[in-house]
Design goal:
The protein is mostly beta strands and 471 residues long. The protein has helices at residues 3-12, 24-32, 317-320, and strands at residues 17-20, 49-50, 54-55, 69-70, 87-93, 115-120, 126-128, 142-143, 148-152, 155-160, 165-171, 176-183, 189-196, 202-209, 214-220, 227-234, 240-248, 258-266, 277-280, 287-291, 297-301, 304-306, 323-325, 328-334, 339-347, 361-367, 373-381, 389-401, 404-407, 411-416, 421-426, 431-436, 439-444, 450-455, 461-468.
Protein backbone atom coordinates (compact mmCIF):
# COMPACT_ATOMS: atom_id res chain seq x y z
CA UNK A 1 0.00 0.00 0.00
CA UNK A 2 1.42 3.39 -0.94
CA UNK A 3 1.75 6.27 1.51
CA UNK A 4 -1.01 8.15 -0.34
CA UNK A 5 -3.36 5.16 0.03
CA UNK A 6 -2.73 5.17 3.76
CA UNK A 7 -3.46 8.86 3.82
CA UNK A 8 -6.77 8.22 2.11
CA UNK A 9 -7.68 5.67 4.78
CA UNK A 10 -6.70 8.08 7.51
CA UNK A 11 -8.95 10.75 6.05
CA UNK A 12 -11.87 8.36 6.05
CA UNK A 13 -11.39 7.82 9.78
CA UNK A 14 -11.63 11.47 10.71
CA UNK A 15 -14.53 13.87 10.59
CA UNK A 16 -12.60 16.92 9.47
CA UNK A 17 -9.70 18.07 7.35
CA UNK A 18 -7.48 20.71 8.91
CA UNK A 19 -5.53 23.19 6.85
CA UNK A 20 -2.97 25.47 8.47
CA UNK A 21 -1.65 28.77 7.21
CA UNK A 22 -5.20 29.88 6.26
CA UNK A 23 -7.13 32.83 7.58
CA UNK A 24 -9.82 32.29 10.26
CA UNK A 25 -12.50 32.82 7.61
CA UNK A 26 -10.90 30.20 5.41
CA UNK A 27 -10.61 27.76 8.31
CA UNK A 28 -14.33 28.16 8.99
CA UNK A 29 -15.06 27.57 5.33
CA UNK A 30 -12.83 24.51 5.42
CA UNK A 31 -14.83 23.06 8.28
CA UNK A 32 -18.03 23.51 6.27
CA UNK A 33 -16.63 22.00 3.10
CA UNK A 34 -14.03 19.52 4.30
CA UNK A 35 -15.76 16.63 2.51
CA UNK A 36 -16.06 18.53 -0.77
CA UNK A 37 -14.04 17.22 -3.71
CA UNK A 38 -13.42 18.34 -7.24
CA UNK A 39 -16.61 16.60 -8.42
CA UNK A 40 -18.51 19.86 -8.06
CA UNK A 41 -16.27 21.40 -10.69
CA UNK A 42 -16.46 18.57 -13.20
CA UNK A 43 -19.68 19.92 -14.71
CA UNK A 44 -17.94 23.16 -15.66
CA UNK A 45 -14.41 22.14 -16.59
CA UNK A 46 -12.56 19.44 -18.48
CA UNK A 47 -12.40 15.84 -17.30
CA UNK A 48 -9.93 15.31 -14.47
CA UNK A 49 -6.51 13.76 -14.79
CA UNK A 50 -5.67 11.16 -12.14
CA UNK A 51 -1.99 10.64 -11.41
CA UNK A 52 -0.01 8.85 -8.73
CA UNK A 53 2.68 10.58 -6.64
CA UNK A 54 6.23 9.37 -7.20
CA UNK A 55 8.39 8.29 -4.24
CA UNK A 56 11.41 10.57 -4.08
CA UNK A 57 14.85 9.51 -2.83
CA UNK A 58 16.13 11.60 0.06
CA UNK A 59 19.85 10.79 0.36
CA UNK A 60 20.45 13.65 2.80
CA UNK A 61 17.86 12.40 5.31
CA UNK A 62 20.60 11.43 7.77
CA UNK A 63 22.15 12.80 9.80
CA UNK A 64 19.60 15.38 10.92
CA UNK A 65 21.05 18.89 10.42
CA UNK A 66 21.57 21.16 13.38
CA UNK A 67 19.03 24.00 13.18
CA UNK A 68 20.92 27.25 12.42
CA UNK A 69 18.98 29.18 15.08
CA UNK A 70 20.57 30.76 18.15
CA UNK A 71 18.75 32.45 21.01
CA UNK A 72 19.87 35.73 22.62
CA UNK A 73 22.50 35.07 25.30
CA UNK A 74 22.00 31.33 24.67
CA UNK A 75 19.22 31.34 27.25
CA UNK A 76 17.01 28.94 25.31
CA UNK A 77 18.27 25.51 24.22
CA UNK A 78 17.20 24.02 20.91
CA UNK A 79 14.68 21.58 22.38
CA UNK A 80 13.27 19.00 19.97
CA UNK A 81 9.74 19.80 18.82
CA UNK A 82 7.40 16.81 18.95
CA UNK A 83 5.66 16.56 15.59
CA UNK A 84 2.06 15.33 15.38
CA UNK A 85 1.12 12.31 13.33
CA UNK A 86 -1.27 12.52 10.42
CA UNK A 87 -0.05 15.90 9.19
CA UNK A 88 1.75 16.68 5.96
CA UNK A 89 3.78 19.54 4.53
CA UNK A 90 3.23 20.66 0.96
CA UNK A 91 6.25 22.39 -0.54
CA UNK A 92 7.67 23.30 -3.93
CA UNK A 93 11.14 23.01 -5.38
CA UNK A 94 12.39 24.97 -8.41
CA UNK A 95 14.50 23.60 -11.20
CA UNK A 96 17.97 22.54 -10.11
CA UNK A 97 20.54 21.47 -12.75
CA UNK A 98 22.04 19.04 -10.22
CA UNK A 99 18.73 17.19 -9.84
CA UNK A 100 17.87 15.26 -13.04
CA UNK A 101 14.36 14.56 -11.74
CA UNK A 102 13.65 18.28 -11.80
CA UNK A 103 13.85 19.18 -15.54
CA UNK A 104 13.87 22.69 -16.89
CA UNK A 105 10.62 23.65 -18.60
CA UNK A 106 11.14 23.62 -22.38
CA UNK A 107 7.81 25.34 -23.11
CA UNK A 108 8.90 28.60 -21.55
CA UNK A 109 12.68 29.03 -21.08
CA UNK A 110 12.05 32.02 -18.81
CA UNK A 111 10.32 29.79 -16.27
CA UNK A 112 11.40 26.74 -14.32
CA UNK A 113 9.20 23.68 -14.07
CA UNK A 114 10.27 22.29 -10.73
CA UNK A 115 8.18 19.96 -8.57
CA UNK A 116 5.55 19.94 -5.85
CA UNK A 117 6.05 17.62 -2.89
CA UNK A 118 4.00 16.12 -0.07
CA UNK A 119 5.85 14.99 3.06
CA UNK A 120 4.64 13.62 6.40
CA UNK A 121 6.00 15.98 9.05
CA UNK A 122 9.58 14.82 9.47
CA UNK A 123 9.07 11.91 7.05
CA UNK A 124 9.93 10.93 3.49
CA UNK A 125 8.59 13.26 0.76
CA UNK A 126 6.80 12.16 -2.38
CA UNK A 127 6.62 14.18 -5.59
CA UNK A 128 3.07 15.15 -6.49
CA UNK A 129 2.18 14.51 -10.11
CA UNK A 130 0.89 18.00 -10.91
CA UNK A 131 0.17 18.36 -14.66
CA UNK A 132 1.00 21.74 -16.12
CA UNK A 133 2.85 22.94 -13.02
CA UNK A 134 5.64 25.49 -13.51
CA UNK A 135 7.56 26.88 -10.56
CA UNK A 136 7.26 30.65 -10.33
CA UNK A 137 8.59 32.66 -7.39
CA UNK A 138 5.99 35.35 -8.10
CA UNK A 139 2.99 32.97 -8.13
CA UNK A 140 2.81 30.90 -4.98
CA UNK A 141 0.51 27.83 -4.95
CA UNK A 142 -2.27 28.02 -2.38
CA UNK A 143 -4.73 25.71 -0.65
CA UNK A 144 -8.44 26.22 -1.05
CA UNK A 145 -10.57 25.90 2.10
CA UNK A 146 -11.73 22.47 0.86
CA UNK A 147 -8.14 21.20 0.79
CA UNK A 148 -7.37 21.35 -2.93
CA UNK A 149 -4.08 22.78 -4.15
CA UNK A 150 -4.45 25.68 -6.59
CA UNK A 151 -1.32 26.13 -8.70
CA UNK A 152 -0.20 27.76 -11.94
CA UNK A 153 1.85 26.87 -14.99
CA UNK A 154 0.38 26.29 -18.44
CA UNK A 155 -2.85 27.62 -16.94
CA UNK A 156 -4.48 27.22 -13.53
CA UNK A 157 -5.06 23.82 -11.97
CA UNK A 158 -6.80 22.34 -8.93
CA UNK A 159 -5.19 19.22 -7.46
CA UNK A 160 -6.82 16.99 -4.88
CA UNK A 161 -3.78 16.22 -2.73
CA UNK A 162 -4.85 12.79 -1.53
CA UNK A 163 -6.69 11.35 -4.53
CA UNK A 164 -4.25 12.73 -7.11
CA UNK A 165 -7.13 14.09 -9.19
CA UNK A 166 -6.20 17.22 -11.18
CA UNK A 167 -8.49 19.57 -13.11
CA UNK A 168 -7.48 22.53 -15.27
CA UNK A 169 -9.74 25.51 -14.52
CA UNK A 170 -8.11 28.16 -16.75
CA UNK A 171 -5.89 28.17 -19.83
CA UNK A 172 -3.40 30.59 -21.37
CA UNK A 173 -1.81 30.88 -24.80
CA UNK A 174 1.48 29.10 -25.38
CA UNK A 175 3.36 32.42 -25.55
CA UNK A 176 1.97 33.70 -22.22
CA UNK A 177 2.96 33.34 -18.58
CA UNK A 178 0.90 33.72 -15.43
CA UNK A 179 2.21 36.60 -13.34
CA UNK A 180 -0.06 36.61 -10.27
CA UNK A 181 -2.82 34.67 -8.54
CA UNK A 182 -4.96 35.45 -5.49
CA UNK A 183 -7.80 33.58 -3.79
CA UNK A 184 -10.36 35.18 -1.49
CA UNK A 185 -10.33 34.07 2.15
CA UNK A 186 -13.53 32.08 1.74
CA UNK A 187 -12.21 30.36 -1.38
CA UNK A 188 -15.06 31.54 -3.59
CA UNK A 189 -13.34 34.23 -5.67
CA UNK A 190 -10.20 33.92 -7.75
CA UNK A 191 -8.22 36.60 -9.57
CA UNK A 192 -5.11 36.16 -11.70
CA UNK A 193 -3.10 37.83 -14.43
CA UNK A 194 -1.08 36.87 -17.48
CA UNK A 195 1.17 38.58 -19.98
CA UNK A 196 3.37 37.64 -22.95
CA UNK A 197 6.51 35.70 -22.05
CA UNK A 198 8.63 38.14 -24.06
CA UNK A 199 7.18 41.12 -22.15
CA UNK A 200 5.61 42.74 -25.22
CA UNK A 201 1.87 42.66 -25.82
CA UNK A 202 -1.20 42.69 -23.59
CA UNK A 203 -1.52 42.25 -19.84
CA UNK A 204 -4.76 40.45 -18.95
CA UNK A 205 -6.48 40.28 -15.57
CA UNK A 206 -9.16 37.69 -14.85
CA UNK A 207 -11.55 37.38 -11.92
CA UNK A 208 -14.67 35.53 -10.87
CA UNK A 209 -15.84 32.35 -9.14
CA UNK A 210 -13.08 29.80 -8.60
CA UNK A 211 -13.77 27.63 -11.65
CA UNK A 212 -15.15 30.27 -14.02
CA UNK A 213 -13.05 33.44 -14.07
CA UNK A 214 -13.49 35.97 -16.88
CA UNK A 215 -11.42 38.76 -18.40
CA UNK A 216 -12.07 41.95 -16.41
CA UNK A 217 -9.18 44.23 -17.39
CA UNK A 218 -6.48 44.44 -20.05
CA UNK A 219 -3.72 46.89 -20.91
CA UNK A 220 -0.62 47.20 -23.05
CA UNK A 221 2.71 46.21 -21.53
CA UNK A 222 4.01 49.53 -22.87
CA UNK A 223 1.55 51.45 -20.67
CA UNK A 224 2.70 50.93 -17.09
CA UNK A 225 1.85 50.70 -14.23
CA UNK A 226 1.91 47.06 -15.32
CA UNK A 227 -0.75 45.57 -13.10
CA UNK A 228 -0.80 42.22 -11.38
CA UNK A 229 -3.12 40.92 -8.66
CA UNK A 230 -2.19 41.36 -5.00
CA UNK A 231 -5.48 40.28 -3.36
CA UNK A 232 -9.19 39.79 -4.01
CA UNK A 233 -11.77 41.03 -1.49
CA UNK A 234 -15.46 40.03 -1.69
CA UNK A 235 -17.90 42.96 -1.84
CA UNK A 236 -21.28 43.38 -0.17
CA UNK A 237 -22.93 45.17 -3.06
CA UNK A 238 -25.50 44.31 -5.71
CA UNK A 239 -23.46 46.11 -8.36
CA UNK A 240 -19.95 44.94 -7.37
CA UNK A 241 -18.98 41.28 -7.03
CA UNK A 242 -15.51 41.86 -5.58
CA UNK A 243 -12.65 44.32 -5.32
CA UNK A 244 -9.22 43.50 -6.68
CA UNK A 245 -6.12 44.97 -5.10
CA UNK A 246 -3.58 45.48 -7.88
CA UNK A 247 0.10 46.31 -7.74
CA UNK A 248 2.73 47.34 -10.30
CA UNK A 249 5.33 44.81 -11.48
CA UNK A 250 7.24 47.57 -13.30
CA UNK A 251 7.35 45.25 -16.31
CA UNK A 252 9.18 42.44 -14.49
CA UNK A 253 8.17 38.78 -14.32
CA UNK A 254 9.84 38.58 -10.89
CA UNK A 255 7.90 39.01 -7.63
CA UNK A 256 8.01 42.82 -7.79
CA UNK A 257 5.14 44.75 -6.13
CA UNK A 258 5.00 48.54 -6.01
CA UNK A 259 2.02 50.76 -5.23
CA UNK A 260 -1.55 49.59 -4.69
CA UNK A 261 -4.75 50.16 -6.70
CA UNK A 262 -8.38 49.10 -6.26
CA UNK A 263 -10.32 47.67 -9.20
CA UNK A 264 -14.05 46.97 -8.70
CA UNK A 265 -15.46 43.94 -10.50
CA UNK A 266 -19.04 44.81 -11.49
CA UNK A 267 -21.78 42.29 -12.03
CA UNK A 268 -21.53 40.95 -15.58
CA UNK A 269 -23.28 43.26 -18.01
CA UNK A 270 -23.51 46.17 -15.57
CA UNK A 271 -20.69 48.32 -16.98
CA UNK A 272 -17.68 48.25 -19.25
CA UNK A 273 -14.09 47.96 -18.13
CA UNK A 274 -13.43 49.75 -14.85
CA UNK A 275 -10.23 51.70 -14.18
CA UNK A 276 -8.01 51.01 -11.14
CA UNK A 277 -7.91 53.72 -8.46
CA UNK A 278 -4.65 54.29 -6.60
CA UNK A 279 -4.68 53.97 -2.79
CA UNK A 280 -0.92 53.61 -2.20
CA UNK A 281 1.58 55.69 -4.17
CA UNK A 282 4.44 53.68 -5.67
CA UNK A 283 6.83 56.65 -5.70
CA UNK A 284 8.98 56.71 -3.67
CA UNK A 285 9.53 53.00 -4.08
CA UNK A 286 6.96 51.52 -1.72
CA UNK A 287 4.83 48.44 -2.02
CA UNK A 288 2.39 46.09 -0.28
CA UNK A 289 3.69 43.05 1.57
CA UNK A 290 0.68 41.18 2.97
CA UNK A 291 -2.81 41.45 4.41
CA UNK A 292 -3.62 40.42 7.96
CA UNK A 293 -5.65 37.19 8.38
CA UNK A 294 -8.86 39.20 8.90
CA UNK A 295 -7.98 41.38 5.88
CA UNK A 296 -8.48 44.47 8.08
CA UNK A 297 -4.84 45.59 7.95
CA UNK A 298 -2.20 46.01 5.27
CA UNK A 299 1.49 45.63 5.97
CA UNK A 300 3.57 47.56 3.47
CA UNK A 301 7.01 49.06 3.04
CA UNK A 302 7.36 52.81 2.39
CA UNK A 303 10.97 52.27 1.38
CA UNK A 304 12.24 49.33 -0.67
CA UNK A 305 15.63 48.81 -2.25
CA UNK A 306 18.02 46.46 -4.01
CA UNK A 307 20.46 44.25 -2.14
CA UNK A 308 23.75 42.98 -3.65
CA UNK A 309 23.55 39.56 -5.32
CA UNK A 310 25.51 36.95 -3.34
CA UNK A 311 28.19 35.78 -5.78
CA UNK A 312 28.50 32.35 -4.14
CA UNK A 313 25.02 31.28 -5.35
CA UNK A 314 23.81 30.96 -1.77
CA UNK A 315 20.62 32.79 -2.78
CA UNK A 316 18.61 31.74 -5.88
CA UNK A 317 18.72 34.34 -8.66
CA UNK A 318 14.96 35.02 -8.65
CA UNK A 319 15.11 35.76 -4.91
CA UNK A 320 18.29 37.82 -5.08
CA UNK A 321 16.64 39.96 -7.79
CA UNK A 322 13.79 41.08 -5.53
CA UNK A 323 13.31 44.49 -4.01
CA UNK A 324 13.44 44.23 -0.22
CA UNK A 325 11.69 46.26 2.44
CA UNK A 326 13.91 48.63 4.41
CA UNK A 327 10.96 49.81 6.52
CA UNK A 328 7.54 48.54 7.61
CA UNK A 329 4.23 50.31 8.17
CA UNK A 330 0.79 49.01 9.12
CA UNK A 331 -2.47 50.63 8.03
CA UNK A 332 -6.14 49.73 8.34
CA UNK A 333 -8.00 48.66 5.20
CA UNK A 334 -11.75 49.25 5.16
CA UNK A 335 -14.65 50.62 3.17
CA UNK A 336 -16.40 49.97 -0.10
CA UNK A 337 -14.32 50.48 -2.14
CA UNK A 338 -11.43 49.75 0.26
CA UNK A 339 -9.24 52.64 1.38
CA UNK A 340 -6.20 52.84 3.64
CA UNK A 341 -6.31 54.50 7.03
CA UNK A 342 -3.50 56.33 8.79
CA UNK A 343 -0.33 54.26 8.89
CA UNK A 344 1.71 53.39 11.95
CA UNK A 345 5.43 52.76 11.71
CA UNK A 346 6.55 49.24 12.59
CA UNK A 347 10.17 49.61 11.47
CA UNK A 348 11.57 53.02 10.45
CA UNK A 349 13.48 53.53 7.22
CA UNK A 350 17.25 53.99 7.09
CA UNK A 351 18.64 56.67 4.83
CA UNK A 352 22.07 57.85 3.63
CA UNK A 353 24.13 55.35 5.60
CA UNK A 354 27.84 55.04 4.86
CA UNK A 355 27.86 51.41 3.76
CA UNK A 356 25.40 48.91 2.30
CA UNK A 357 26.37 46.67 5.22
CA UNK A 358 24.74 49.15 7.62
CA UNK A 359 21.26 48.68 6.13
CA UNK A 360 18.71 46.16 7.35
CA UNK A 361 16.24 44.46 5.03
CA UNK A 362 13.04 42.56 5.71
CA UNK A 363 11.78 39.42 4.01
CA UNK A 364 8.88 36.94 4.38
CA UNK A 365 6.87 38.69 7.12
CA UNK A 366 3.92 36.78 8.60
CA UNK A 367 1.05 37.70 10.88
CA UNK A 368 0.37 35.16 13.59
CA UNK A 369 -2.98 33.42 12.97
CA UNK A 370 -4.56 35.31 15.89
CA UNK A 371 -3.28 38.60 14.43
CA UNK A 372 -1.65 39.60 17.72
CA UNK A 373 1.90 39.65 16.43
CA UNK A 374 4.04 40.00 13.35
CA UNK A 375 7.07 37.77 12.72
CA UNK A 376 9.69 38.55 10.07
CA UNK A 377 13.24 37.88 8.93
CA UNK A 378 15.62 40.82 9.03
CA UNK A 379 18.98 40.55 7.28
CA UNK A 380 22.01 42.61 6.35
CA UNK A 381 24.47 42.15 3.50
CA UNK A 382 28.25 42.34 3.46
CA UNK A 383 29.66 45.14 1.32
CA UNK A 384 32.36 42.89 -0.16
CA UNK A 385 32.07 39.75 -2.34
CA UNK A 386 30.54 37.24 -1.96
CA UNK A 387 28.04 39.65 -0.32
CA UNK A 388 26.97 37.17 2.34
CA UNK A 389 23.72 37.73 4.22
CA UNK A 390 23.28 37.67 8.00
CA UNK A 391 19.76 36.99 9.25
CA UNK A 392 17.72 37.17 12.43
CA UNK A 393 14.11 36.57 13.45
CA UNK A 394 12.11 39.43 14.95
CA UNK A 395 8.63 39.65 16.41
CA UNK A 396 6.35 42.64 16.96
CA UNK A 397 3.34 42.58 19.29
CA UNK A 398 0.14 44.14 17.90
CA UNK A 399 -3.04 45.11 19.75
CA UNK A 400 -6.28 46.55 18.44
CA UNK A 401 -8.25 47.89 21.38
CA UNK A 402 -11.16 50.33 21.12
CA UNK A 403 -10.38 50.94 17.48
CA UNK A 404 -6.82 52.08 18.24
CA UNK A 405 -3.97 50.08 16.75
CA UNK A 406 -0.97 49.72 19.07
CA UNK A 407 2.35 48.43 17.84
CA UNK A 408 5.20 47.47 20.16
CA UNK A 409 8.88 47.82 19.30
CA UNK A 410 10.40 44.94 17.31
CA UNK A 411 12.04 42.37 19.58
CA UNK A 412 14.88 40.04 18.61
CA UNK A 413 13.71 36.44 18.73
CA UNK A 414 16.78 34.59 17.45
CA UNK A 415 19.81 34.93 15.19
CA UNK A 416 20.87 32.56 12.44
CA UNK A 417 23.98 31.44 10.60
CA UNK A 418 21.99 30.45 7.49
CA UNK A 419 23.03 32.02 4.20
CA UNK A 420 19.33 32.30 3.32
CA UNK A 421 16.55 32.32 5.91
CA UNK A 422 12.85 32.56 4.99
CA UNK A 423 9.63 32.08 6.91
CA UNK A 424 7.13 29.69 5.37
CA UNK A 425 3.69 28.78 6.69
CA UNK A 426 2.04 28.06 10.04
CA UNK A 427 1.93 24.54 11.43
CA UNK A 428 -0.45 25.72 14.14
CA UNK A 429 -1.22 28.95 15.98
CA UNK A 430 2.26 29.26 17.50
CA UNK A 431 4.53 27.06 15.36
CA UNK A 432 5.94 28.43 12.12
CA UNK A 433 7.92 26.71 9.38
CA UNK A 434 11.10 28.27 8.01
CA UNK A 435 13.63 27.53 5.29
CA UNK A 436 17.36 27.58 6.00
CA UNK A 437 20.06 26.44 3.57
CA UNK A 438 18.35 23.51 1.90
CA UNK A 439 16.14 22.44 4.81
CA UNK A 440 12.70 23.26 6.19
CA UNK A 441 12.27 23.41 9.96
CA UNK A 442 9.37 23.97 12.34
CA UNK A 443 9.84 26.42 15.24
CA UNK A 444 7.52 26.75 18.22
CA UNK A 445 7.60 30.46 19.04
CA UNK A 446 6.24 29.89 22.54
CA UNK A 447 8.81 27.29 23.67
CA UNK A 448 11.71 27.58 21.23
CA UNK A 449 11.48 23.90 20.30
CA UNK A 450 12.60 23.02 16.76
CA UNK A 451 12.15 20.05 14.45
CA UNK A 452 13.45 19.23 10.97
CA UNK A 453 10.66 18.74 8.43
CA UNK A 454 12.45 18.44 5.08
CA UNK A 455 16.08 17.89 4.09
CA UNK A 456 16.11 18.79 0.41
CA UNK A 457 19.70 19.91 -0.09
CA UNK A 458 18.45 22.69 -2.37
CA UNK A 459 16.10 25.66 -2.23
CA UNK A 460 12.50 24.71 -1.41
CA UNK A 461 9.46 26.76 -0.35
CA UNK A 462 6.83 25.66 2.17
CA UNK A 463 3.25 26.08 0.93
CA UNK A 464 0.95 24.73 3.65
CA UNK A 465 0.43 22.08 6.31
CA UNK A 466 -2.57 19.83 5.86
CA UNK A 467 -3.81 16.96 8.00
CA UNK A 468 -6.43 15.26 10.10
CA UNK A 469 -7.25 15.75 13.76
CA UNK A 470 -5.86 18.54 15.92
CA UNK A 471 -2.31 19.62 16.76
Amino acid sequence: MTMLSLIGLLLACFNGLLIYGLTPQAQQAAARSATATVRALETRVASPIVLTPTPTPNPSATPTPNPPIFWPNNNTPNAVLQLPEGHYLIYEQPYNPNLPSNPKNSRNPNSQQGNLFLAPLGGQPEALQAPGYIYNQAVRPTLTPSGQLLYSGDGLWLLDIFSGQAIQIATIDTDEVITSMALSADGRWLAWSSEPANGRGTIKIYAGPLASTRLVYQQSTADCPCFRVFAVLPASSKQVLAYLLLTDSRGSHEAIQNGLWVLPIPVAGEQGQQEPQEILDEDPQQGPLLLSPSERFLLYSPNEGQVPYPTDNSVPADIAALSYANSLSLASLAGSPPTLGAAQVVLPAQRALRSIADYHWVTTPLFTPDERALVYVEFSSDDQPPYGRHSALYTVQISDGNGHLRIAKPALLATSTAALLELGTWLNGHTVTFYADGNIFALDLSTGAIATLVQAGTYVRAIAVIGTGRI
